[in-house]
Amino acid sequence: MRKHNKKIGLPPGSVVFTGNKKVDNVHTHYLAFNETYCNDQIIESHSKTILKKPSIEKNDWYDIRGMHDTDLISQVGQIFEIHPLIQEAIVDIHQRPKFEEYENGIFITLASISFNSTLLEIKKEHVAIYFNTGFMLTVQETDSDLFAYVRKRINTGKGKIRLRGADYLAYALIDSIVDNYYIVLDEIEEVIEDLEKRIIETQQVQDKNKIHQLKKELMSMRKSVSPLREAISKFSKTENAFIEHSSQLYVRDLYEHTIQVMDTVDATREILNGLQDLFISEMSLKMNQVMQLLTLISVIFIPLTFLAGIYGMNFVNIPELKYENGYFVLLTVMVVIFIGMLLYFKRKKWL
Amino acid sequence: MRKHNKKIGLPPGSVVFTGNKKVDNVHTHYLAFNETYCNDQIIESHSKTILKKPSIEKNDWYDIRGMHDTDLISQVGQIFEIHPLIQEAIVDIHQRPKFEEYENGIFITLASISFNSTLLEIKKEHVAIYFNTGFMLTVQETDSDLFAYVRKRINTGKGKIRLRGADYLAYALIDSIVDNYYIVLDEIEEVIEDLEKRIIETQQVQDKNKIHQLKKELMSMRKSVSPLREAISKFSKTENAFIEHSSQLYVRDLYEHTIQVMDTVDATREILNGLQDLFISEMSLKMNQVMQLLTLISVIFIPLTFLAGIYGMNFVNIPELKYENGYFVLLTVMVVIFIGMLLYFKRKKWL
Amino acid sequence: MRKHNKKIGLPPGSVVFTGNKKVDNVHTHYLAFNETYCNDQIIESHSKTILKKPSIEKNDWYDIRGMHDTDLISQVGQIFEIHPLIQEAIVDIHQRPKFEEYENGIFITLASISFNSTLLEIKKEHVAIYFNTGFMLTVQETDSDLFAYVRKRINTGKGKIRLRGADYLAYALIDSIVDNYYIVLDEIEEVIEDLEKRIIETQQVQDKNKIHQLKKELMSMRKSVSPLREAISKFSKTENAFIEHSSQLYVRDLYEHTIQVMDTVDATREILNGLQDLFISEMSLKMNQVMQLLTLISVIFIPLTFLAGIYGMNFVNIPELKYENGYFVLLTVMVVIFIGMLLYFKRKKWL
Amino acid sequence: MRKHNKKIGLPPGSVVFTGNKKVDNVHTHYLAFNETYCNDQIIESHSKTILKKPSIEKNDWYDIRGMHDTDLISQVGQIFEIHPLIQEAIVDIHQRPKFEEYENGIFITLASISFNSTLLEIKKEHVAIYFNTGFMLTVQETDSDLFAYVRKRINTGKGKIRLRGADYLAYALIDSIVDNYYIVLDEIEEVIEDLEKRIIETQQVQDKNKIHQLKKELMSMRKSVSPLREAISKFSKTENAFIEHSSQLYVRDLYEHTIQVMDTVDATREILNGLQDLFISEMSLKMNQVMQLLTLISVIFIPLTFLAGIYGMNFVNIPELKYENGYFVLLTVMVVIFIGMLLYFKRKKWL
Amino acid sequence: MRKHNKKIGLPPGSVVFTGNKKVDNVHTHYLAFNETYCNDQIIESHSKTILKKPSIEKNDWYDIRGMHDTDLISQVGQIFEIHPLIQEAIVDIHQRPKFEEYENGIFITLASISFNSTLLEIKKEHVAIYFNTGFMLTVQETDSDLFAYVRKRINTGKGKIRLRGADYLAYALIDSIVDNYYIVLDEIEEVIEDLEKRIIETQQVQDKNKIHQLKKELMSMRKSVSPLREAISKFSKTENAFIEHSSQLYVRDLYEHTIQVMDTVDATREILNGLQDLFISEMSLKMNQVMQLLTLISVIFIPLTFLAGIYGMNFVNIPELKYENGYFVLLTVMVVIFIGMLLYFKRKKWL
Ligand SMILES: [Mg+2]
Ligand SMILES: [Mg+2]
Ligand SMILES: [Mg+2]
Ligand SMILES: [Mg+2]
Ligand SMILES: [Mg+2]
Ligand SMILES: [Mg+2]
Ligand SMILES: [Mg+2]
Ligand SMILES: [Mg+2]
Ligand SMILES: [Mg+2]
Ligand SMILES: [Mg+2]
Ligand SMILES: [Mg+2]
Ligand SMILES: [Mg+2]
Ligand SMILES: [Mg+2]
Ligand SMILES: [Mg+2]
Ligand SMILES: [Mg+2]
Ligand SMILES: [Mg+2]
Ligand SMILES: [Mg+2]
Ligand SMILES: [Mg+2]
Ligand SMILES: [Mg+2]
Ligand SMILES: [Mg+2]
Ligand SMILES: [Mg+2]
Ligand SMILES: [Mg+2]
Ligand SMILES: [Mg+2]
Ligand SMILES: [Mg+2]
Ligand SMILES: [Mg+2]
Ligand SMILES: [Mg+2]
Ligand SMILES: [Mg+2]
Ligand SMILES: [Mg+2]
Ligand SMILES: [Mg+2]
Ligand SMILES: [Mg+2]
Ligand SMILES: [Mg+2]
């Protein structure tokens, strides 16, 4: 089924999941914390313990795994007064990364990526982040714990994260996703280094296809990174009541990271273009050598074979054939031609 | 007949249809609505029931199908005090997508597209949208109901469309056209995936031509999408009495869509460039194999054939010919050369 | 003679014609008009009836044909107080299109183009436009009536042109030149469509040269259109006493046209690049087929010919030669090899 | 010796000449002028008549030829209070063209170029210009009189140059250098037109190398023109006490020239890219023809030669050989095959 | 081990060295100076003589060699109140060059480069610079004395460096690193000039690989230069209490240098692209010549060999064989064909 058919003709704000269901038990990882307090629990059954509007004095982070449960998202949207357009964007996995300010909160969406170095494929997971003062909602497609490191830092009280609000938490979450971008680029770099060595040694069909495949994957990664960079730029520059200025110093640092990722993606694409050029010129070079060999052998033997053909003719009167040493003279002539040819090709640097 | 000849030498504001007549019965789909009221009717005979200036309390949407009827457009223009330059642009199918503010209303023009996956052709239809407070005029080339989904939402009262004015209706109409862009891109993606598989297996003339064709069509699509993106950007940012600020939140979302469409068009074009490169390197690779085979066979047999030629000569005195086992010695020599050649090519990785 | 040698070392404001004389009888088409009055006459002899400073109540349009008469231009410049730099630019046919505001008037220069579809050449004519309140001066290289349509509209009182001033007239004149750009692009498009069909069928030397020629011409056209677009943009945005705001609405429309022309020029250039790629891959494909044929024939017959050579040798003792049906056995072996080869190539999809 | 080694580790403001000495007798061409007065003299011996700070009532232009005399430059710098960074830049021939405002004056540096149409090389000369009210200092590498035309205009009182100050003189000097850019581009264009004709007729090694050479030279020219354009743009827009507004009208014109030069450089580079593509496709086309000829001859004669080989075998029992007209039947078969082949290739458009 | 794994999951401000330890004895080169005073010493044992907060009246420059000692960096950070994000950036060798203003000081990071002309590799060293009024901290990876020239100028009191503060010192340090960029580019230029000569003479596999290698290294250099240019631009334009306006005049000059380096890097990359094109067209040209030779020999001898084959057949009745001078007639025919072929190829410019 086609990607965008599901949403045709629907009014804006329709909460329609555009991906494939990836988790069976939709559940929410709830974490409430402030400087002195930390409560970490998993909500399995949303129908019973419905999410409640949190108090101001602590930070409440609802991390929902299972984006396909649009009813849950709608309910959450109503309880926390989330704008319908945000609700729609949360469950639209084709959504471009963006940073948007609404009256009640800040919405950020981005892609978490990982690299399969066997299939040479980048796997993307859509992540939605919404926060205001003391409240954080994140929605993921799968139940892989993307934010494990951040959660651990909160639980162990490492760094400043417990001292700060939802804005800093948003920074920390995005930062941990952007860290994965570096990992993916490192892995791709390794593949490319292998590929380069192999292309210089031998040119094989599968290497050409691998370059093609990697170019496509990097193009796809670029489509996630480029708008993310813009989004983080907005995040770092906006003046919004939900974001403290001291947090933005960290977002500025994160912005530098996205620029660096972007630069690396582009540089990697150029390297792949270079590899492709290398592949093609290696092939041309090999072709040249093949043709030189063919021409060498042909140019040497075709005239000799012609000479042999001449004296294989059955004319009654071919005087040379009757000479006692005619055969030996001809052999000598042939050797001279042969050596002459070799010298000629030696001078032409073919040998 | 050439595209632009019709308008040579005419003063600005001349209402000249630049396309081909595509509908016989020009008719107007009239839909009046507000929060509580909804009246849906089709005006077949414009000569009798002329369009009337609508009242303020409700929204009046005149959806004219049949752009070639320039008299009708002029009449409507006069009744609703539409600027001559707008009247001209409404019926100019070569008009670039644009968003323009005039004293009496807002004018938007764009292209609706569909994809013929057999001919690999994108079909474009020019659509003109003009509105002010409570009034909406749309003009289409054909009588296909481009806006069926929006009309249905108004009739059924789904979403917020009945609660809002002509500005929100304009958003909804453009949104439903931009939705089709996604569909077209999905369809093109399917064609490209097929093409890619086929090119990796075998390289055929028609595949090369299909890449060329798709590149042209995407270039043409880009020519519609790029100015549309600018137009929607203006729509989302302008401060104009005919547009409510709350509607612009939706237009901002639409703007994101046009950026995404643009990105996808550009990415698809790059994929096609990549396919073209793949096609060419596949062909080179195949050529190399062909030449290697030719060279292999030639290099092995040309010297052997020369040897056979030598002993096919008719010199009276060729001592080897008279040896009892001369033939068998030569055959052995030939087998040795043959095997030597095979080993040589094996070492060179040709076999 | 080289293009720019004429002006070396001269002070700025030197009125030097940089082109070739293209008209013998320099003459001026004079047209005075306002809402109620219209006087159309041709001034043949400038020496007698010298141009006079016009009154304010009507619009006076002096259309000089014959740019090489630099004395006349200087005289006109003095009478109408035209800045020396403008006088110089009027007669410099290598002048880039531009829009410049001076204390006494507005100066616009641009190129009028036409396409020779036989030679595939774009012919350019330099046009200079200078105006202030109620005064219009245009200078053309040749006596072809570039502005015939506008003149006719004034004479017949069609459109609003009689009701408006020199600023609107300037708009109308430029618009009529830009209309020709569309015509030229339509004609080039026709040539390209022909070319495309021919390249898909057969690849010929002249087609390659035609692509090269068209690319050069479009590059040249781009050099005229790109600065014109900037100039019209300035025209549409400037706040100048010589230009009424209501005229600028029309200039804005004209600006859209120049963007569209520019887009089309660039798209056409990309199409030509695509055609070039197509030409090259068609040639590669054909080369592949040629090489496959050569290889097919060689690979089949070279071993067979070798076999025939073996049994053409004159050794006294070749047992096979003496077998009664040796010949028929060999023929059978050859047929088997022949058929085996055919099957091999069939499997490799060469046949 | 390497270009930049000379300056390693030196503090800023070090007056180090980075080029090669090009003139033996360093001398200064001194020209003092105002509306009524003009004094033109050459200062040969700087050690005796040291340069003196000029009075305000006239313009004093010191035109030093011989950039390598860094002591002289330092002395002049001290007398006229020129900033150390300017003194450094004056004698640094690798300096990018720039326009800089200092407290005491304006500094401009640019490259004067000429073209050697035999070696296809652009020769650059570094020129430094410094001025303030009534004072002009220019420094050149060689004693070629780059500014001859301007000097002549001052001496003869042609144009307005005598009536104006050092700012206008600066304009006139730069203008005369930019005029040379046009000459160089005209000369390169001539070379390219020759090249194009030759490539269409025959493809030769040296033509390929010439394209490569010209591409390099134009890249080098671009490196001078691109920053010059920016510099002139600053010159035309700055508000500085040393520059009168009426002079800037002329600088604006000069700015247009630099844009045009830039456009032409870029267009010429694209033309060279086009020529390169043409060269390569001409070569491919020729290769195709060569291969077609080889294939034609091979495909026709290889089977015929095989047939001849068959009947050259020495089997005791080959019935055909004994037929009275066996030879003639075979010849007929061969002619039929030959003609069949020709018809086949005719149909394939090879002949 | 992968580049970015070390930092996964850590909170911002974690001081983690991301490179490889390059120096055994971490030590600090301490230099205190003002107009009249200069004290140069090396601190070997940081555990004993811990760095002390310097007084305001003089400039204290701590130049730490050995970036891997993160404990030392943390301690220094605490003593001098350096922001945690700076501490992290100091020891992150993958950090993009940047200029950042914090409340307590200015942080600049960049790469020092050198070129290995045998391996064709650019070696990068990460350098961190932090300063405020009277305080300068630099951290290097190795103990190579990158800043020897600057230190010498301070010790000898050359230039103005002793009269000025840490801001000017920062300028001088960066300037001395950027000077190395010129050296590297000069060295690369030499390699390219060699390469170009060799490619025009002969095309070898290693040349192709060298172009590929240099393209990669320049891409890597560009990744350091491009953000440095932006950083220096910020440095030259910022209004910050730690930077005097008179120093920024020098930074502006430095900014010009980074632009020039950037231009040269890009120009060099284009030259490499040009070389690659040259390599490929040289190969094509050579291939053409090879094929022409093969075709020439084949086309001449294949028909002649066929003729010899005809008269080598053993038909009992071949009348020509019995003619007394049949052999000589045939030889004459063959010579005629041979000469005819030669003339044909002469006319086709193959010989
Ligand atoms: Mg690239
Ligand atoms: Mg690239
Ligand atoms: Mg690319
Ligand atoms: Mg590339
Ligand atoms: Mg490419
Ligand atoms: Mg490349
Ligand atoms: Mg390339
Ligand atoms: Mg592309
Ligand atoms: Mg591309
Ligand atoms: Mg491309
Ligand atoms: Mg391409
Ligand atoms: Mg590509
Ligand atoms: Mg192009
Ligand atoms: Mg292109
Ligand atoms: Mg191109
Ligand atoms: Mg191309
Ligand atoms: Mg392209
Ligand atoms: Mg292309
Ligand atoms: Mg280029
Ligand atoms: Mg180009
Ligand atoms: Mg290029
Ligand atoms: Mg190219
Ligand atoms: Mg190109
Ligand atoms: Mg091109
Ligand atoms: Mg390049
Ligand atoms: Mg390039
Ligand atoms: Mg390039
Ligand atoms: Mg290029
Ligand atoms: Mg490139
Ligand atoms: Mg190139
Ligand atoms: Mg290329």
UniProtKB/TrEMBL annotation, chains A, B, C, D, E:
Q: Where found?
A: Cell membrane; Membrane
Q: Which Gene3D superfamilies match?
A: CorA soluble domain-like, Magnesium transport protein CorA, transmembrane region
Question: How is this protein positioned relative to the membrane?
Answer: Multi-pass membrane protein
CDD domains for the chain? TmCorA-like_1
Could you tell me which Pfam families the record lists for this protein? CorA
| Keyword Cell membrane in record | yes
InterPro entries given for it?
CorA_cytoplasmic_dom, CorA_TM1_TM2, Mg/Co-transport_prot_CorA, MgTranspt_CorA/ZnTranspt_ZntB
Q: Name one GO molecular function term.
A: magnesium ion transmembrane transporter activity
Segments spanning the bilayer are 293-313, 325-345
Q: Which UniProt keywords apply?
A: Cell membrane, Coiled coil, Ion transport, Magnesium, Membrane, Transmembrane, Transmembrane helix, Transport
Would you tell me the Gene Ontology cellular component terms? Answer: plasma membrane
Domain of life here? Bacteria
Coiled-coil region(s) at which residues?
178-205
DNA-binding: present as a keyword of the record? no
Q: Which family does it belong to?
A: Belongs to the CorA metal ion transporter (MIT) (TC 1.A.35) family.
* Biological role stated in the UniProt entry: Mediates influx of magnesium ions.
Protein name according to UniProt: Magnesium transport protein CorA
According to its UniProt entry, this protein's organism is Maribacter vaceletii
